[in-house]
Amino acid sequence: MNKRDFIKFSGLATAGLLTGNAWADANASAPKGSPTGSPEGTLTSGLDALTSMTGDVIPISREERLTRIANAQAIMAKQNIDAIVLEPGAAMVYFSGIQWWRSERLTAMVIPKTGDVAVVCPFFEEPSIRESLQVGEDVRVWQEHESPFAQVVAILNDRGIPSGRVGFEHSVRFFVSQGIVEANPKFVAVSAEPVTRGCRMYKTAHELALMHRANAITLTAYQFVYGQLREGMSQGEVKSLMNSAMSALGGEQPWSLALFNEASAYPHGTRQSQVIGKGSVVLMDCGCAVQGYQADISRTFVFGEPSVKQQKIWNIVREGQRVAMAAAKVGTSAGAVDDAVRAYYLKEGYGPDYTLPGLSHRTGHGIGMEGHESVNFVRGESTPLNPGMCFSNEPGIYIPGEFGVRLEDCLYITSKGPVWFTEPPTSLSEPLGKIVPLQTL
After folding, report:
1. Which tens digits make up the pLDDT trace of 123-168?
2. Cα(35)–Cα(39) distance, rounded to whole angstroms?
3. How many CB atoms lie within 10 A of CB 181?
4. Which residues contact residue 430 at a Cβ distance below 8 angstroms, ignoring those fewer than 6 apart?
5. Whole-angstrom Cα distance, residue 181 to residue 163?
6. CA-based, 20 to 30 A from 289: which of 150, 162, 213, 382?
7. What gap in Å lies between CA 203 and CA 390, rounded to an integer?
């Protein structure tokens, strides 16, 4: 699986979610090593030495989902949206807990502006749908010869919505929105993004705690894999090892990129076969989830002694992260963070803009239940930064034909400013970084 396929604090802390001390304990027990191929890099234990870090994790509760629905309904009232219809995916999980997939057979959740939510699904899927449904009792089924859209219309009629504005997320398939509007031409299809984005963009302390744990797992796995790097290893071997480590530590849906040598100059890699040799750049971009909440961390190592140029570029990218962090002040537009990094890189001789050698992608993306969410650190993004928003900070530099460097750590905005989930590494000789204790919003 690649990156694009994924992509209440005090109470939880009391219940035992990862704290600075817990991270230190996990860190101390994790294998140590250095990617040099020398004897001191040899590990005394393997994957079987890694144990799950999720035993005390508290899932999102029914009460939290009901609060989310109430928040969505309040936004709908302000936006003059009478109802929204969701297909399986992150938003449906966020509001209902339903873990499902999309197919030609419609399963959908209906959230009216007022009243109880409802679910539409095929008759034979109802028992399975109810297994993960946490809110609402109204499940309307349809048989194979019937129209699921008629059931959606019936739900809305029962809630006093015979006509009006029905919201659909951008990811809802056309045949769904079209089918509902055709089933009742008095409905007008509008965007549900102001509602779903208005809820999901701002994480609660509980959501941040889950993301914090996912980041802790990912960084612990990095530490393990860093000590395992050996000359001659392929990209596939490193990816498999990293995924296995994250899984052993309790991470869900692990994914990894491992880009060596010239392939590291392409942010998402190439088909070129690469192996680790002396002086190789090893760029990794990896993450996992905890209770559906994502981590996304990139690290760049050099196997053996780095060249002067490798060291220089690594240092510039690390400073780029610092520049982005300093610019991410409450109330500042998200686009200003990207602007600040590009201005710094231009002074260092990289760019301008998105040109290479330089930073060819945005400085960062929103993150939460999906690896890539709105809003982004990208030019022209005017959305102001506010507490609860979460982003990646990944201002890489890529030199085609040579190598690339990317350091990526995720952050969240508090009333006092941005805070790291994982603190970036201090130097290329100590390239892992560390977890940062959670702070209140």
Report:
1. 999 999 999 999 999 999 999 999 999 999 999 999 999 999 999 9
2. 10
3. 17
4. none
5. 10
6. 382
7. 8
